[in-house]
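From the shared-data thread, chain only:
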Amino acid sequence: MASCKKSNDSAKSASIVGKWYETKVILHQSENNGPVVSDTTYLTDKSTYVQFNSNGSGSSTEDGSTTNFNYTVSGNSLTITPNSDNEINTITALTANSFVLHTTSYYTTNGVVYSDIIDDYFTK
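Structure, as tokens:
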């Protein structure tokens, strides 16, 4: 007697390549390596999106302004260049229809060092 078993191919077929619409942003901000001073969740209207092409190029569009970039993926690490805010990007979840990007960035304004920890939620 033969049996059939469904395989879970969604994890195998999941790829960052494609057009992804931002649906939610969670931001935690601290100053000078201190405790979190701002903890905010934004729901977005899918007007912000990112396009990852199969050749390692891409673009992001926010408020009608488009920025081009190049990217590489190694494991769950996503490197985007140019990288303006010393960002560390980690893909924390990826399926065929959604992904979550965890980003830590550091920047200085008026002598204050800010640390932003951002979780961006995207769907196709």
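Residues 1-12 have pLDDT under 50 and may be disordered.
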